Amino acid sequence: CVLGACDMMRNRPDDRPFFCYLPLGKPHPAYYAEEDFYNSIDPDALPPSIPTPDGDANLPEVLDALRAEYRSKDITDEMWRDVKRIYYAMCTKIDSLFGLVVDTLKEQGLYDDTLILFFSDHGDFTGDYSLPEKDHSTLQDDLVRVPLIIKPPDGVQVKQGNRQHLTELLDITATIYD
């Protein structure tokens, strides 16, 4: 998919603009990472998992139901750490693939004139709260704090910087039009 997109950029007509939408399905369950990406993640550098809250936390009951469904009490801390390591390895692979796209844009002299949007639809728990993946009912930080990177073409005036605002993918179209 990524190599095909890079080939498209290399072989496109010079006199016409191009559009490339490159949806990558990972990181996403089922969790799997190639050995080189897996080995690139230092398990000791991973953030600790957020523990399962006690009943006083007043969280939605769906989380307890999911923990029961996943049999989370049978999963060891070491196993959760490996889930997180695999997830980070999958993210690292996406970063590497995105790097190939950016390198191709630069190689073809297209980078400065190209609008780039890099985003994700959700994160996963990866062991936080003793859960492996997202649910559709709650909004914990590890589910909603995901990348949204916008690199405009040169000459488009924007205020550069990092923002910590809650944004929906629905907002992207209006943002680009603005």
Task: Briefly characterize the structure.
The protein is mainly alpha-helical and 178 residues long. Helices cover 38% and strands 4% of the residues.
Helical segment count: 6
Ends distance: 30 Å
Strand content: under 5%
- Return the average pLDDT rounded to an integer: 91
| Order of strands in the sheet with most strands | 1-2
Order of SSEs: HHHHEHEH
Structural class, from secondary structure content? mainly alpha
- Computed over alpha carbons, the radius of gyration is 19 Å
Percent range of helical residues: 25-40%
Biggest beta sheet summary: 2 strands, antiparallel
Annotation keywords:
6 helices; mainly alpha; two-stranded antiparallel ribbon; 178 residues; globular; single chain
Secondary-structure map with pairings?
Blueprint: H1 2-11, H2 35-39, H3 61-69, H4 77-107, E1 116-119, H5 141-144, E2 148-151, H6 170-177
Antiparallel strand pairs: 1-2
Helix pairs in contact: 1-4
Describe what you observe in this structure.
The protein has six helices and two strands. The model has no long low-confidence stretch (mean pLDDT 91). It is 38% helix and 4% strand. With 178 residues, the chain is mainly alpha-helical. The relative contact order is 0.16. α1 runs parallel beside α4 (77-107). Strands 1-2 form a two-stranded antiparallel ribbon. The chain has helices spanning 2-11, 35-39, 61-69, 77-107, 141-144, 170-177, and strands at residues 116-119, 148-151. The longest helix is centred in the middle third of the chain and has 31 residues, at 77-107. The two termini are 30 Å apart.
